[in-house]
Amino acid sequence: MLAKPLRTRVLAVAASLAVAAGLFALAPLEGETSSHREAPLVSADPQIDTTDVWAFVSEDRPDTVTIVASWLPFQEPAGGPNFYAWADGAKYRINIDNDHDAKPDVVYEWVFTDHYRNPNTFLYNTGQVTSLNDPDLNFSQTYDLTRINRDTGRARVLVDDAIAAPSNVGAASMPGYNANLFDAAVESFGSAPSHTWAGQSDDAFFLDLRVFDLLYGADLSEVGDDTLAGFNVNTLALQVPKSDLALGGDADANPIVGIWSTTSRRSVQIQGADGSTDASGKYVQVSRLGMPLVNEVVIPVGLKDYFNGSKPTQDPAALPLVQDPELPRLLNAVYGLDIPDSDPNTAGVQREDLISVFLTGVDGLNMPEGGTPSEMLRLNMSIAPCSDMCSPLGVIGGDVAGFPNGRRLQDDVIDVSLRVVLGVLLPDHQAIAETIGDGVDANDLPFNSAFPYVAYPTAGSDADPH
Amino acid sequence: MRTVVKAGVVLAAALALLAGGAALDLRGRESEDADGRAVAGVASGSALLRPAVTARALGSSIAALQDRLRSVPQDWRGFATLGLAYVAQARVTADPSWYPKAEGALRESLRLHPEDNVEALLGLGALALARHDFEDALARGRAALDLDPFDANAYGVVGDALLEIGRYDEAFEAFQTMVDTRPDLASYARASYARELLGDVPGAIEAMRLAYEAAGSTSDAAWAAAQLGELEFGRGDVEAAARWFERGRDLEPDSSANLAGLARVAWADGDAGLAIDRYAELVAMDPAVEHLAALGDLYATTGRRSEARDQYAVVEATRSLARANGVNVDLEVALFDADHGDPRAALAAAEAEWARRRSVHVADAYGWALFANGRYEEAAHALDRALSLGARNATFLFHAGMIERARGHEDAALRLLREALATNPHFSILHATTAETVVAELEAAR
C-alpha cells in the first residue's frame, strides 16, 4: 500500500539512528600513539536511557494509580547479567504535576547502590539463588525510594535498602525465579498500602520497528513482528493511593495529574575556580520521557538532545513544532498522503488535535483548566478501569480509560500515534488514518494480573528468546 | 527516550550486539557445557561471564548494517552509522584502509541528506580526528554544534580537536560543557584527560573511575580500565596499574590497551622476556605502531638487535600504510625517528607538525627532535611550552632534563631527571635506564 518510491528529500522525524550511530564509536579506541589519547566519542549509556512510561488506574485496586517506567532496552536474556544493572548513584525519578503549572509537585526518586559479596570474582552468582538475600547472589543492588514534596520541600524516605530483582540468569541458577525473586521484590510501605518494585522485566512495549522505514520509502506490507519480543528491560513500578498524587490530597476535586520520568547523573568539575577539583559536581538531567513516541512524532531530530535535558516549563516554545510536525509532511512527500489541518480556514497548518494530545490534554477527558501546555502523560484518575468497552486503541477505540488518558501496558501506542498524526481525531479525515499501523497489536508475553503487572523477563536459559 | 524506535529493524541485532546493555560482549551463561555438565571449576548452577570478541562483534554489526542499507538505500542515518562503524573498525583492527571506506559511507549520507545531517558531520569529525586532521575535525564539530547545540558528542569532537591543536582553555571549556550536558563515559573520560594534562592525576583517576562505572558495555569498561591502568602506571604505581590492566583484560581478553599495559607491567617488574612474549602476541593481533615500537625497543634493550630492526621496519611499513589512507603521522614519526637514529627525518616531521599545531605533545616532540639535531636552545624553548600546562609527564621531564644537561645546566638537568624518575621510574623502555645513568653521573660530578 505504501510502496511508492521516495521522491524527495527524506526529513528526519522518526527512525533516528543517532543512538545507533553512537554504538560504533564506543568500541575501544586504542590510542595510536602514547602521545595522543583517543577516548570513545559516544558511549552507549543504556542505564539512563528511559524507554517508556505507563500510568493507569489499577484494575485490581481502583483506588490506586500504578506508574511503570523502563530503562536499559534491548537486554539479550543471555547477555551478561552484571551489566543489566541500574546506574549506581543516578537519580531515577517519576515526576507528578498536580496543579498544572508544568512543574513537578510530587517527585518519587529511586537511587541504587551496588553490592558485591566478593568483588574479585566475575561470577554473578556462586550457586543457586532462591531468594533475594541468597548469599550465592554475588552482585546485587539495593535502592532507596524517596518522596519529595516540591511545594513544602519535604523529602521522606519511603523505602530504605530494598532489593531490586536480579536479572534472570536462567533456570539452573535461579530456579523458581518468578516467585522467588521477581514477585518477592515487591516492597510495601504506608498504610494503604503502597507498593514499589524494581528489577528486570519483559519489555512491555510492542511494535514492529520496520514501520519507521516508511520514512525511507520502504514497503509496509511486511510489518507485523514484535521487534522487542524476547528482550528484557529494567523496570520501576509504583502503586500509590490516588490521593498521594492529587493536589491537596483530594483526588475527587483534582483528579487530573501530569506524569513524566527524568533520569539524572552527576557531572564533574574539571577545574575549580581556585584550581581545585571536585568530582561531586551537579546532577544533570540526561533523559526525560512522558508521552510515548514524542521524539518520533513531534520533536525534530535536532532537538532530541535539547528535549532530554529540558523541563516541561520550557515546552510552550515547542508549540510551533506540534502545530506543524514534520512527519505528516514527510508522509505527504513520500506517499502523497494528506497533511491534516485542524483549521483549514487559517493560513498554514494547524493541529489543535495534536496539541491537545501531547501538550494540554484532551478537552472533556484529561485536560485541566488553565494548565500550562507541556509534554507529559496526563491521567484523569476519576475514570475507572474499563470493564466492557476495552480497546488497545484507547480513546480512539472508544475506551477512555486508555491512552492518551494515561497509558496502560496493553495500549497499542504505535497504531494510535500514527493514526492521530494522520488526523483520526479530526472530522473528514483520510481513510488511512483509521487503518495505518505496524501490525503488532499486543505484547508477545502476557502481562501479570497483579502489581507490578509487567511480564516476567525471558530467562537466560531460554534457547530461542526471540 | 526510546532509542529502539530510532534504530530500524535490522539494526536490532546490532543494537543488541553493541548497545543493548553490553549484550554480547560479555555473555552470562548457565555454566554448563553442551552436554549439560557443570563446567569444571565453576560451582554448579552459577552464571559465568564469558567474553566474546570485540572485533567480530563490530564486524557482524557492520554486516547487518550493510544488509540493511541494501534493502533501505535511502537510510542516510544508516550510512552515517556505517561510516562511524568503519572508523571504529580501523582502530580495532589497526587497519587504516577502513578510513577511505568510512569517508565513502559518510559522504553518501551527506549526499542523501545534505542539510541538518548532524550524524554525518560527527562521523566526519571522528574520521578527521582519527586521521589527525584536527582543523578539519574542529570545523566538522562546530558545524554539528550549529545544527544541534545540545549535542554532547559534538562538544566532544570540538574539544578533542582544540586539545590536539593546543587551544587548551577552549578545549577544557568544551569538555566542561560536554560533561555538564551529558555526564557519561565519553565526557567523564575527557574530564579525566583534562585534569591529567593540568597535572591533577588523582583528580584524573577519580573522573576515570566515574567513566569506568558509567560504562554501558564491556568494551567501554575495558577501555576505561586500561586508562586507569595507564594513569596508575604513569604515576609509578605498577601494582595498581597491573590490577586495572588485568581487570580490563578479564572484561575483554582481546583488549589491546590492556594487553599492552600488562606487557609493560612485566617489563617494569624486571621480566623483559615475559614482556617480549606479551608484545609479540599483541602485535600479531594488533600491529599498531606503538606496540611494534615497544617490542622493537624491548629487543633492542635486551641485545636482540636484528629482531629489533625487523620490528622497526614494520613500523615504517605501517606508517606508510597509514599515510596512504590519509592519516597524518608526523608527530609519531618525529618521536620515533628521534629515538631511533634518524634525527633529520625526525626534525622534518616535527617542523611540519609544529607548523600545524602547538599542543604540548607536539612541543615535546619538536623539542626532542631539535635536541637530536643538536639545537639545544630552541629545544629548551619547545620543552618550556610542553611543560607549561602542568602535566606531570615523565617523558616530558626526561626530555627537558636531557636538553638542560646538553645546555650545561646541570642543576636543572638533575632536578628534571630526578623528577621524571620520581614520577614514573618506568616511563620508557628505551630511556628509563638512561635517566638513571645520567642522574648518577650528574650526582657524581657534583
Question: Any overview of this molecule?
Answer:
The complex is a heterodimer of chains A (466) and B (446). Chain A has 466 residues and is an alpha+beta fold. Chain A is 13% helix and 22% strand. Chain A contains nine helices and twelve strands. In chain A, the strands form two sheets. In chain A, strands 3, 4, 5, 6, 10, 11 and 12 form a seven-stranded antiparallel sheet that branches. The longest helix of chain A has 10 residues, at 326-335. Chain A is globular. By secondary structure, chain B is an all-alpha fold. The chains are: A alpha+beta (466), B mainly alpha (446). At the A-B interface, helix 1, strand 1, strand 2, strand 11 and helix 4 of A face helix 1, strand 1, strand 2, helix 2 and helix 3 of B.
Helical amount among residues of chain B, as a percent range?
over 70%
Shape of chain A: globular
Radius of gyration of chain A: 23 Å
Sheet with most strands of chain A = 7 strands, antiparallel
Shape of chain B: globular
Largest interface: A-B, 116 and 130 residues
Which sequence of SSEs, written as H and E, runs from N to C of chain B? HEEHHHHHHHHHHHHHHHHHHHHHH
For the largest beta-sheet of chain B, the strand count, sense and barrel status come to:
2 strands, antiparallel
Rounded average pLDDT of chain B: 86
Tally of separate helices of chain B: 23
Distance between the termini of chain B: 68 Å
Give the number of helices of chain A. Answer: 9
Give the end-to-end Cα distance of chain A, rounded to a whole number of Å.
28 Å
What is the mean pLDDT of chain A? 85
Helix-residue proportion of chain A = 10-25%
Structural category of chain B is: mainly alpha
Write the SSE topology.
The complex is a heterodimer of chains A (about 475) and B (about 450).
Chain A: H1 18-25, E1 50-57, E2 64-75, E3 91-97, E4 106-116, E5 139-149, E6 154-163, H2 177-182, E7 187-189, E8 194-202, E9 232-241, H3 242-245, E10 256-266, E11 283-289, H4 294-297, H5 304-309, H6 319-323, H7 326-335, H8 352-360, E12 377-380, H9 413-421
Antiparallel strand pairs in A: 1-2, 2-9, 3-4, 3-10, 4-5, 5-6, 7-8, 8-9, 10-11, 10-12
Chain B: H1 11-18, E1 26-30, E2 47-51, H2 54-71, H3 76-93, H4 98-112, H5 118-130, H6 134-147, H7 152-165, H8 168-181, H9 185-197, H10 201-214, H11 218-234, H12 238-251, H13 256-268, H14 272-285, H15 289-301, H16 305-324, H17 330-339, H18 343-356, H19 360-372, H20 376-387, H21 394-406, H22 410-423, H23 432-444
Antiparallel strand pairs in B: 1-2
Helix pairs in contact in B: 1-2, 2-3, 3-4, 3-5, 4-5, 5-6, 5-7, 6-7, 7-8, 8-9, 9-10, 10-11, 11-12, 11-13, 12-13, 13-14, 14-15, 15-16, 17-18, 17-19, 18-19, 19-20, 19-21, 20-21, 21-22, 22-23
